[in-house]
Design a protein that fits this description.
single chain, 428 residues, alpha/beta, HAD_sf
Length: 428
């Protein structure tokens, strides 16, 4: 057998710390690693044909010590002692398929942790692109029985249909699909993509509940309604409570909302009648005059998987949100409205408000929640709570500058662009 192939039981393997992926100082032979299911490093290579996007999928040799004769959508290998991920991936693609790393333009994508009853490893995923046919490959007989072209969908169907497919590679394949939806190599600094660490890349949980902010998210009217609300609060505070002009905004800045400031400073009575009167007065801003039905928005919302409930999560009152939804022609498409009363009058960017929203929606795991909002404060709190999130609105209201939020998966200018960043929640 060739040294460096999976049949060489004495090959020296790089073991790593299971938690950190830090390499251990002492080497270990392959047989001991397999027998003890010790944590090691491995490369996973997706070889793609650019003309049709199909994968070169191997049928592993019957001689393999791991998953013999299984389909493998991400061939690669166990990283040797002192060997780097890239070095290993280049060696494997050349040994198994007769192609050089330069020939396929091998590029590293992400690193991930995988563990099951048979294997424990930190894998690094690579993509190579080659315009050829399986018959043109120079296969290593000890490693590869055959190669065939398959789409990602066909590989998933084969796995779900009971065909034997290497499960660590299937996990890598699902991560690969998520990586492409995340924008692939459009990665900013710090080794992150949309707030996700690529050195410990994980499959995100399916969305269990969608929470849409209302004003300046479900619609954009150049902040007309938002400015009306601000003016209404200012007028109420001056007219009803005799506050100096500008004091309402100061209360908002100091306490998170003007209402909480009014209550905490004893300006407004902390009783239901007084609070309800204030909320109804300041939110009566003639929304239907400013908004109109949006057929495109309605069509987009209808394309969302109906199994995912949709909620409006607003810092205002329920009636204000209802008026907006009615004016937009989408009032029948939501499962409920989480408003300031639902949140116990807490500021929206507080843990208490997000916990109230989860209780309202009946979702126990924060990772199953996804917020769409234009407020960086709200999105930051969502991230701290473990929610997924998308920024809606890329320009600031007060200064016209670009809005940046490192806590989000993505940013879009208008809500209608949502399918481009979260295609997995939409029906075909």
């Amino acid at each position: 057998m060739l040294a460096g192939t999976s049949q060489n039981a004495s090959e020296q393997i790089q073991l790593v710390d299971p938690l950190t992926n830090a390499p251990l100082a002492a080497p270990c032979d392959r047989a001991t690693m397999r027998l003890g299911r010790l944590c090691h490093r491995a490369s996973y290579i997706f070889l793609v044909r650019p003309s049709d996007g199909r994968l070169f999928v191997q049928r592993r040799s019957a001689l393999k010590d791991y998953c013999p004769r299984c389909l493998d959508p991400a061939p690669g290998g166990v990283v040797g002692f002192g060997e780097g991920y890239g070095e290993n991936a280049g060696r494997e693609v050349e040994e198994e398929m007769g192609l050089s790393a330069a020939e396929v333009g091998l590029r590293r994508m992400f690193t991930f942790r995988y563990e099951d009853g048979r294997v424990d490893c930190w894998g690094a995923a690579f993509e190579g692109r080659w315009e050829g046919e399986p018959g043109d490959l120079r296969l290593q007989e000890e490693e590869v029985e055959s190669v065939r072209m398959m789409s990602v969908g066909e590989v998933l169907e084969a796995d779900e249909g009971g065909e034997k497919v290497t499960q660590d590679s299937m996990h890598a394949l699902r991560l690969y699909e998520q990586f492409k939806k995340d924008g692939g190599w459009g990665v900013g600094g710090g080794g992150k993509l949309g707030g996700v660490k690529l050195d410990d890349y994980k499959l995100r949980r399916p969305v269990e509940a969608l929470f849409f902010d209302c004003d300046d998210c479900l619609y954009f009217d150049n902040w007309t309604v938002a400015n009306r609300l601000t003016a209404k609060i200012e007028d109420w505070c001056v007219r009803e409570k005799g506050l100096a002009p500008g004091r309402a905004y100061e209360l908002y800045k100091e306490h998170g909302t003007a209402l909480r400031g009014l209550l905490r400073e004893g300006i407004l009575e902390d009783e239901a009648g007084a609070i309800d009167g204030y909320l109804e007065d300041v939110h009566d801003v003639g929304v239907p005059e400013a908004l109109s039905p949006n057929p495109g928005l309605r069509a987009m919302l209808l394309r969302i998987n109906p199994a995912i409930p949709k909620y409006v999560f607003t810092a205002s009152v329920k009636r204000h949100a209802e008026r907006c939804l009615e004016a937009l022609g989408i009032a029948d498409l939501f499962d409920g409205i989480v408003d300031t009363r639902t949140c116990g009058l807490q500021t929206k960017h507080s843990r208490a408000a997000f916990e109230a929203a989860m209780r309202f929606a009946g979702v126990a795991d924060p990772a199953g929640c996804l917020l769409l909002d234009d407020s960086v404060k709200n999105l930051r709190c969502a991230g701290e709570m473990g929610w997924r999130s998308v920024l809606v609105g890329l320009v600031g209201r007060d200064d016209g500058r670009p809005v940046v939020c490192d806590d989000c998966e993505a940013g879009i200018d208008r809500i209608e662009e949502l399918p481009g960043v979260l295609p997995e929640i939409f029906r075909a």
